[in-house]
Amino acid sequence: MIYFDNAATTELNESVLDSYLQVSRKYYGNPSSLHSKGEEANSLLKQSRKQIASLMAVEPEEIFFTSGGTEGDNWAIKGTAIEKVEFGKHIISTVIEHPAVIKSLDQLEKLGWDVTYLSVDAEGRIDIEELKESIRKDTVLVSIMAVNNEMGSIQPLTEIGKVLEAYPTIHFHVDAVQAVGKLDLHLAESRIDIAVFSGHKFHAPKGTGFVYLKKGRQLAPLMSGGGQENGMRSGTENVPGNVALAKALRILLDQSAEKRRELNRLKRELTDYLSIFDKVTLFTPENSAPHIVCFGVHNIRGEIIVHALEKVGIFVSTTSACSSKRKTKTPTVQDMGYSKNEAESAVRISLSHYNTLEEVEQFKDVFNAVYHQMKEIE
């Protein structure tokens, strides 16, 4: 079995699972309880927060635990909208954001907010000039992902940040779910105010994640109750999950430059190989994240390739995203200027540092057979 769908979710690291189980069995107290069981759990929670902050080179007070990327994006967008409603009701985003962002913006539009969706070029990147022209006096939030989950395209976060330096009241939210371990974010020095991360994208348990909220920035909480997470996210904390999350992040970022080089090597092997087939189109841009390769076979729907590979134990995925002012499901590929037919052919390979060159070589052999089989059908 070869698992090439790591942008969807990742295999749980064995040692991370061991930590999760150990904490679940031994440190099951409620961190808010005053007795020793509660104090033990609270101590682990503090240690996990401190470790994540250290790994991300930020302050512990800037880290808030969540259930993952969807919650984090919802909180960043709706929390900003609620907090800053008196200052304006205009938000800027892009046509290729994750559905957690697009659907949150849909809800706000129905409540009277105005959203400007920036277009992207053939490499999936926004135009900085279009961003500048879109900023208004009532703009309160710019929400732009770091790495697109379908194409691997990387947004110019530094350049965006430079533009926003002139607008200190605007919150800058970045969905960084696909970026952690793949890009150097330098959060503390950046103009990024809110960054969202999801544990199951880097071998931590599902239902874990965290939000970076720059000191001095304010978000309205979405979940009210007991006042956990410094009053920002009520609900009994997931201590085992957060301990596991911190450990998975440490493992991910250990020798991250070396791991990134290896991912780039595997990606290059894949793109060089796929490019020799005359009916294959490579959609992933040249300067993109090291773990994503998106391609299509002319006149063959993506799901046909997915199921053909699945039959021989190789797991990849198709791609689609909810984007644009049309509020319909249109693939990111189409937003980048390709035709509807080309977009429907899209297949995504997404790697992790657990994948190997041997697996890539096996994929090559299998894809060659599948490709020629598809040509006969066509």
TrEMBL record:
Keyword Coiled coil: yes
Name of one Pfam family that matches: Aminotran_5
Domain of life: Bacteria
Keyword Cytoplasm: no
Keyword annotations: Coiled coil, Iron, Iron-sulfur, Metal-binding, Pyridoxal phosphate
Coiled coil: 249-276
Obligatory cofactor(s): pyridoxal 5'-phosphate
Membrane-crossing residue ranges in chain numbering: none
Domain Aminotransferase class V residue range list: 2-363
Gene Ontology molecular function terms on file: cysteine desulfurase activity; iron-sulfur cluster binding; metal ion binding
Record family assignment: Belongs to the class-V pyridoxal-phosphate-dependent aminotransferase family. NifS/IscS subfamily.
Protein name: Cysteine desulfurase
Organism: Alkalibacterium olivapovliticus
